[in-house]
Amino acid sequence: MAASPNPSSRFLRACRREPVDCTPVWFMRQAGRYQPEYRAIRERYSLIDICKTPALACEVTMLPVTQMELDAAIIFGDLMLPLDGLGVEYELKENVGPVIAHPIRSEQQVRDLRVFHPRRDVPYLLEAIALVRRELNGRIPLIGFGGAPFTLAAYMIEGKGSRDYRQTKSFMFSRPDLWHRLMDHLSRSLIAYLRAQVEAGAQVIQIFDSWVGCLSPSDYRELVLPHMKTLFSGLDGVGAPLIHFGTETATLLPAMTEAGGDVMGADWRIDLDAAWRLIGSNRAIQGNLDPAALLADFDVVKRKATAVLAAAAGRAGHIFNLGHGILPGTPVDTVRRLTDFVHEASAGTSGRGDAR
Description:
7-stranded parallel beta sheet, two-stranded antiparallel sheet
């Protein structure tokens, strides 16, 4: 096994709400289409080829780490990867996203879902994690990840991206019994999936609930919260901090915090200090610059990043990130300069310690 990251690394300390020398930084989609090197790889390989070829997944994961002083790496993959093991056919289409071959519409389809076995179903991902750990050699921690049960269920029911989640909500409201059966199956599959990533070498786990913001707080509590509690309970004692992230979730943050997570993610639709009040001072927070800000002049980026840092007010437990992934067309130099700026602007501020 490769060397473990120093437990006093600023990223891990921030996850534990301990003092740091400066605010740690990483970015969702820090490896992706904004990088010329990634685009060159994509000219030769499909997205799923990269995900399922450990050496390629390792190479892409390491790209941003070699380009800038990030405080964490995140394994390159896709939210859909567990679906193979469940027996759900899908395709990752360029400029469309995941497309499910046979969207779930019946009780029999739910009954036919396979039991998920990580070493049988995603051996390539586990090997990629081990490769990245060796490449990192303890410099910074590696984040593993998975999609939350609601987001995976919504993809499986809608069949592809959606604006109104009509099929999903119809399924939830008309067949709550079947909905809970599906969510329970996904929750237990994800426990196995995420635990296997930690066993393979991931030191932090992020759970993405990218679509859950379409729900009302009452619907979340009734139809999602019990399953998220199952998921987080199943990850208890895994030995890695857990980041719980969703988009358009300002109204859901209290319930999501109740579900679990050592670090709560906030998107840009809520001020970071307001989000922190909602989740409580006993949780760390991640966020939350608007990704579109990185398309502007760097003076604008600095001003908006300064506002995020001001909202954090030097409190221990802030991890700087965007409110969602880096957008295509973002200049690599802007991402690099932003990383350096956050480190420099937050160094030595009130309430911080001297950890590296």
